């Protein structure tokens, strides 16, 4: 800044000369007009309206003028700066409006467009329930065993001590696989997961602690309570000194983990060719806990007011099965169980109709979440 000088003529201080001020003003205004977007305008603002702009520098010169000249120069420079400020403001508004307009067009989303996105697949609830059931036993140290869905009759029936004329072998229950020539292939679609017991014993070192989840087939019509393709979880323990007490403990742990702690279980005497003795396994109804039994005002849909829910079959492995699988029944003993996976899903999640599980309607499966 120049020192005060009374004989100072503002017209002779170049930056304050009217032509020069007008030029700076014009230059600023045309730069503002030329700014094509907000970034450019920011540059223009720095160049023409900041503290280091020519007009701001000219403004500083005013202080050094004699008082008589100050007002005139101040008016000139102040007017120019005001014009520049207003022009900046106006251009800013225009450019902001343009930007908003552009963003609205560029980022436009037509929410009425048809949906062309593929739904992300998710595992079927039967799969997740089967895994949860399996995990309970894996947590107790069991291994997972597998067998084929198209199975030899020998594994599905003979080795499991089904007599040749056992009714379950007839066409009523079993899908037989025809061979091209004789018609009798000796193969069936396995009617239960129990043949995996024999495969596990033949293929593993003793002791054996396995569970086998899998698909099973019977010639049932599809309705609310039957399906020709269903799933079971087989369990087998063969070791020295194995008793039914271990079986009850394992079943209780399963029921506690899947349906809730503290539910009682019971065994009802039954018959299976491959176990002796055999039992049906029931668990206490986890909804009414038996309170609905005999109370006409309290009907329970889950257990039909019976207080108990059947979840599968079990028993002590028949020595004939051990023998068929090459295990000495004098040394080893064991137990087995078969649990229905559909039944578990139905009870654990209140599914009322088996058809919902097989129809593949996404509205059914998605209610169980989209676990991959
Ligand atoms: N396989 C039998 C069924 O499908 C269920 C079963 C019962 C399995 C007793 C077992 C068992 O392992 O010990 O009806």
UniProtKB/TrEMBL annotation:
What is the main EC category here?
Answer: ligase
The UniProt entry, under Pfam families, shows: Phe_tRNA-synt_N, tRNA-synt_2d
Location of this chain's protein in the cell? Cytoplasm
Asked if the keyword Ion transport belongs to this entry, the reply reads: no
Example GO biological process: phenylalanyl-tRNA aminoacylation
As its record notes, the protein acts as a catalyst of:
tRNA(Phe) + L-phenylalanine + ATP = L-phenylalanyl-tRNA(Phe) + AMP + diphosphate + H(+)
Q: Which UniProt keywords apply?
A: Aminoacyl-tRNA synthetase, ATP-binding, Cytoplasm, Ligase, Magnesium, Metal-binding, Nucleotide-binding, Protein biosynthesis
An example GO CC term for this entry is:
cytoplasm
Question: What does the record say about how the cofactor binds?
Answer: Binds 2 magnesium ions per tetramer.
UniProt-recorded Gene Ontology molecular function terms: ATP binding; magnesium ion binding; phenylalanine-tRNA ligase activity; tRNA binding
Annotated Mg(2+) binding lies at 276
Task: Extract the InterPro entries matched here.
Answer: aa-tRNA-synth_II, aa-tRNA-synth_II/BPL/LPL, Phe-tRNA-synth_IIc_asu, Phe-tRNA_ligase_II_N, Phe_tRNA_ligase_alpha1_bac, Phenylalanyl-tRNA_Synthase, tRNA-bd_arm
Residues forming the Aminoacyl-transfer RNA synthetases class-II family profile domain are: 127-346
Note the NCBIfam families from the entry.
Answer: pheS (TIGR00468)
HAMAP family according to UniProt: Phe_tRNA_synth_alpha1 (MF_00281)
State the protein's name.
Phenylalanine--tRNA ligase alpha subunit
Origin organism is Nocardiopsis kunsanensis
